[in-house]
Amino acid sequence: MPHATSHADIASVELDSALRGGPFHVALRAAIAARGLPLQRVQHHLSRHGVKVGVTSLSYWQQGARRPQRPESLRAVRALEEILQLPEESLIRLLDDSGATPAGRRPAGRSYRYLVETAGAAEELLADLGVPRDGGLHTLNHYERVRIGARRELAERESQHIVRAHRDGVDRFVAVHHGDPGCAPERMTVRALENCLVGRVRRHPESGVLAAELLFGLRLRAGDTFLFRYAVEDGTAGVSHEYVHRPDAHGGQYALQVCFDAGALPVRCHRFTQHSAAAPRAGRQELALNGRHHSVHLVEPRVRSGYVGIAWDWE
What we know:
The protein has 315 residues and is of the alpha+beta class. The chain has helices at residues 7-21, 24-35, 39-48, 55-63, 71-83, 92-95, 112-129; strands spanning 137-148, 154-165, 170-178, 189-194, 197-204, 209-220, 225-233, 242-245, 253-260, 268-274, 281-287, 295-300, 307-313.
């Protein structure tokens, strides 16, 4: 009499195949499915192993939206091997060289998945802070200065805002910083530089997003303007290839300057626009590197929806 194949048998076969050939996210998803554990239970088991990982991060890992890279994340993967009753090193080995960029090749621009993921993480942090996205402020002028360090890393981002309140009682602004892939928000520092103080700070390690309150020290009335300046010290990721800005609202002027270390200059730079996360990049325009100041910049006289940024190529 033929043997009926059960769902458990199918799940076991799929898991064996995924553990042999990967990729990591398929193997992780198959292992979780084979054990029949909801992500909340997986998170609970990880906490009992002394490892803190959010359900959102676990979901990203099994979807392939993000890969565990930081030491704490790799600890979590090793704990998952035990929790999911997998052979030792079976998941960790699938991370080796996965998604690596061949030497000499410039990685493509930030993907749709990356842009959507970081936007979602930012919304989570804003919700955690209990702050609406626009915060009652309209940006009249926003100037960003991005510093690329000697290791070609995103070392620091400094921002100056001129805003106008469109309701009474506004006393703060929430700054959102999107680090490069592989960054560590827990090692970033937010500094208040002018007319503000740093309040609560929230971090989303797996997506590389940080949100920080900047407190004005006074309450604005509708129509009042205010100027403030702050910086985020980063320097926690690898080689940087671009900086992308997504305006929070229409209108106002935006300027971006990217400054390079004198000992690590790119061979070419260009600006670009992108109507949405899913749209192709457009508006490419080469930018000449300022030889004396080692910088390039762009100016948007009136901000529109979508993304604008500067990208560069290394030798």
